[in-house]
Amino acid sequence: MEKNKRVTIKDIAREAGVSICTVSHVINKTHYVSPALTDRVNKAIEKHNYRMDFSASSLRKKVSKMIGIIIPNSSSQFFALLTKYIENFSREIGYHVVICNSDYNTDIEIEHIEALITRNIDGIIMIPVSEDIKCYRNIFELDTPFVFVERKLEGTNCNSVMSFSQDSIAQVIDHLVSLGHKKIAYIGREKDLLHHKIRFNSFADSMKRHNLELKEEYIIYGANYRFKDGYEDMSKLLDVKDQPTAVLVFNDVLAIGAIQAIKDRGYKVPGDFSIVGFDNIEIGNYIEPSLTSITTMKEQISKVAFDLLINKINNKNIRKKHVFIKTEVVMRKSTGAAKK
């Protein structure tokens, strides 16, 4: 390490060959650490005369009145609204919030988790990038309470809250079929996340219920969530020889990009293509045509997640809960009769 450079907990963890969480546990005696690892950490601490930069009152009381929120994309209106509501609920009971953006990167996510824990955060609400518990090592075995939003990690003792979208997706397909649509496509995202699987499986089940073919060329799986990604995904569907007449899109941002792709090819919405989004973000009501969307109850999800976390902070022995919040369909002008 450089001379005169302020030594951080990250430096100690690197020198000892352990995680930041392990260093914190050795210092605060909050979790069992093997004698061998404890010795390595203590030697690194002694060598560099390291002192943790915590407030004395926070350590003494073992409570900080602070919670962390880790979201995968701070520019997303959906995540921004969740954060806003959680901040409001926190303020009402004297809590403060630390917001972290993981940028859909599990390494960054783990850095945020460890940094929050070492600062004596009381609990964390997060939208994990992955549902593979192996990505997070033993982090969720710590005493810090976690609540997952729109994710469910098996093998943890953490609470979760998710949207229940099956009924709304069935309603959307029923509506499109009633308008004469038989060739319905789907633009989705990662196949390995539970709520992504739920959305696609609900779409597939509804298509099957109406005896409609699920064509391989009508199913598009992309990687990102930007307007241009929806534009590119829709462009692929427009290049199909036998084009679909309606598309269910994973979220509103992608749906808005899809609508622009349709317009740029000289087609009309809903005259040539009907489009349905997901999340019901505010901008969807102001584009042309306004976007039919499945609305997730963002304030209710935030409230449930916050209450689950506070209850766990106050009583770590309460049993874990998995809560599902029903979605609703908001009909606007982006859906219409199928073209002849």
What features would you describe in this structure?
The longest helix has 17 residues, at 298-314. The N and C termini lie far apart (72 Å). Helices cover 40% and strands 16% of the residues. With 340 residues, the chain is of the alpha/beta class. Among the domains are: 1-53, lambda repressor-like DNA-binding domains (434 Repressor (Amino-terminal Domain)), CATH 1.10.260; 166-296, Response regulator (Rossmann fold, 3-Layer(aba) Sandwich), CATH 3.40.50.2300. It has helices at residues 9-16, 20-28, 35-48, 56-61, 77-92, 106-118, 166-178, 194-209, 227-238, 252-264, 298-314; strands at 66-71, 96-101, 123-126, 146-149, 159-164, 184-188, 219-221, 246-249, 274-278, 292-295, 322-326, 328-330. Helix 10 (252-264) links the parallel strand 8 and strand 9. The strands form 2 sheets. It has a 6-stranded parallel sheet with strand order 2-1-3-4-5-11, sandwiched between helices.
Identify the notable features of this structure and list them briefly.
six-stranded parallel beta sheet; 340 residues; 434 Repressor (Amino-terminal Domain); single chain; alpha/beta; 11 helices; 16% strand; Rossmann fold; six-stranded mixed beta sheet
Question: How many beta-strand segments?
Answer: 12
| Poorly predicted residue ranges | 54-61
Strand content: 15-25%
Find the CATH topology of the domain at 166-296.
Rossmann fold
Please list the strands of the largest sheet in the order they lie side by side. 2-1-3-4-5-11
Mean pLDDT: 90
Largest sheet: 6 strands, parallel
**Secondary-structure class:** alpha/beta
First CA to last CA: what distance?
A: 72 Å
Specify the CATH architecture of the domain at 166-296.
Answer: 3-Layer(aba) Sandwich
Q: CATH homologous superfamily name of the domain at 166-296?
A: Response regulator
